[in-house]
Amino acid sequence: MKGGALPAAVEFGLIPLLNLAAALVVTALVFLLIGVPPGAALLSLAEGAFGTGDGIGYTLYYATNFIFAGLAVAVPARAGLLNIGGEGQAMLGGLAVALFCLAVPGWPWWAALPFAVAAALIGGAAWALVPALLQVRRGSHIVITTILFNFLASKLSTWMLVDVIRAPGDPSPETMGFADSLALPALATSPLNLSLLLALLAAFLAWLLIGRTVWGYELRASGESPAAARYAAMPAGFLQVLAVCLGGACAGLVGVNEAMGVEHRLVLGFTAGAGFVGIAVALMGRNHAFGIVLAAILFGALYQGGSELAFDYPQVTRDIVIVIDGVVILFCGALEQLWRRPVTALWRRA
Amino acid sequence: MTPLDLISVLASTVRLAVPLILAALAGLCSERAGIVALGLEGLMLAGAFAAGAVAALTGSPWAALAAAMLVGVFVALFHGYACIAQRGDQVISGMALNILIGGLVPVLGQAWFGQGGQTPALGPGARFMPATLPGGDGFGLVWRGLISGHNLLVYATAALLPALVWLLYSTRFGLRLRAVGENPHAVDAAGLSVARLRYLALALCGALTGIAGAYLAIAENAGFTRDMTAGRGYLALAALIFGKWRPLGATAACLLFALTDALQLRLQGVALPVVGIVPVQFVEALPYLLTVFLLAGFVGTARAPAALGRPFVKTR
Question: Could you give the ipTM of this predicted complex?
Answer without folding.
Answer: 0.88
